[in-house]
Design a protein that fits this description.
Elements (H helix, E strand, L loop, with lengths): L3 H12 L2 H8 L3 H15 L4 E4 L2 E4 L1 H25 L7 E6 L1 H7 L1 H10 L4 E6 L2 H9 L5 E4 L8 E15 L1 H6 L12 E4 L5 H12 L9 E4 L3 H9 L4 E5 H9 L4 E2 L7 E10 L5 H11 L4
Parallel strand pairs: 3-4, 3-5, 7-8, 7-9
Antiparallel strand pairs: 1-2, 5-11, 6-9, 6-10, 6-11
Family: Belongs to the LysR transcriptional regulatory family.
Protein name: LysR family transcriptional regulator
Keywords: DNA-binding, Transcription, Transcription regulation
Length: 294
């Protein structure tokens, strides 16, 4: 069972404010300070520093936060496993980003369900940041994500590599055949909302060319892939999606890949869970089953 003073520490990490942490925990501010001082004496390090009036984690504090979140996650997971002791029915709580959930995982979930027909499978769909937060809080055990995450906090296993394509209607794609990326800036860009993995990948690629999304003539932000594809099919602009998400539309000639001279990108989809988890081997076993390698 995690020390109650560690819960205080994590509350301060969440708010970076002793007063707000005290309010959340129903404690006085002096009590919160006392808990932090106890941990600092226990580990012989300073956990927080002050930059003016702003509270910041020290490097040692960051290390303790990562370890404490892993311990908290494992404790919640352990309690759930203990409650189901003796039951044949298992429960799998995990997350996936939108593109992964809609276009990459479905068939693999079919096979996974056949291996565990009596088990409860719960998949939460969200952006990478949201899924990470749910792993940290113990609401999810692991996630399959396309977005970026801090390697020091999460164990990761390569799940798949997906081609990342610029696409639009055939006539427009033909017009830009052999062009370079910058020539597309005169077009309307149809893109996912901020925080989505698909958008993060595009932003990183554009940044490599000293560009950003706002450099396009016009931008349509849409939080639904089906709507993005519909707008592209109707000639409203260009978009960038994983090949798996537009394979059917390309096959039926509703959309076409824009064959740019300077574009050849793929992106790794990753299976992640808390670093240092005592259930690491369990998660690796689930990964192998989901990925068809076991």
């Amino acid at each position: 069972m995690q020390d109650f003073r560690m819960e205080t520490f994590l509350a301060v990490c969440e708010y970076m404010n002793f007063t707000k942490a005290a309010q959340k925990l129903g404690l006085t501010q002096p009590a919160v300070s006392q808990h932090i001082h106890y941990l600092e004496n226990e580990y012989q390090v300073q956990l927080f520093s002050l930059n003016g009036r702003r509270v910041q984690l020290t490097e040692a504090g960051k290390m303790l936060k990562s370890a404490a979140l892993s311990i908290k996650h494992d404790e919640i997971h352990l309690k759930n496993k203990m409650k189901r002791t003796g039951e044949k029915k298992k429960e799998y709580l995990f997350g996936a980003t939108l593109t992964v959930a809609e276009y990459i995982l479905p068939q693999r979930l079919v096979e996974f369900h056949r291996l565990h027909p009596e088990s409860k499978i719960s998949m939460h769909v969200g952006n990478t940041k949201e899924l990470r937060e749910k792993i940290d809080s113990g609401e999810l055990d692991f996630a399959v994500v396309e977005g970026y995450f801090p390697k020091e906090d999460y164990e990761s296993i390569h799940f798949s590599s997906e081609n990342y394509l610029p696409v639009c209607i055939g006539e427009k794609a033909e017009r830009y055949r052999g062009a370079d990326m910058r020539e597309l800036l005169d077009e309307t860009l149809i893109v996912r909302e901020e925080g989505s993995g698909t958008r993060e990948v595009l932003e990183k690629i554009l940044a490599e060319q000293s560009l950003c999304i706002q450099d396009f003539k016009n931008v349509l932000e849409i939080g639904n892939i089906s709507v993005i594809k519909m707008l592209a099919i109707e000639g409203c602009g260009i978009t960038f999606l994983y090949e798996a998400a537009v394979a059917e539309e390309i096959k039926r000639h509703k959309l076409r890949r824009i064959a740019l001279s300077d574009w050849n990108y793929s992106h790794n989809i990753m299976f992640i869970f808390r670093k240092g988890s005592i259930f690491k081997e369990d998660y690796r076993d689930i990964f192998e089953q989901l990925n068809g390698t076991k």
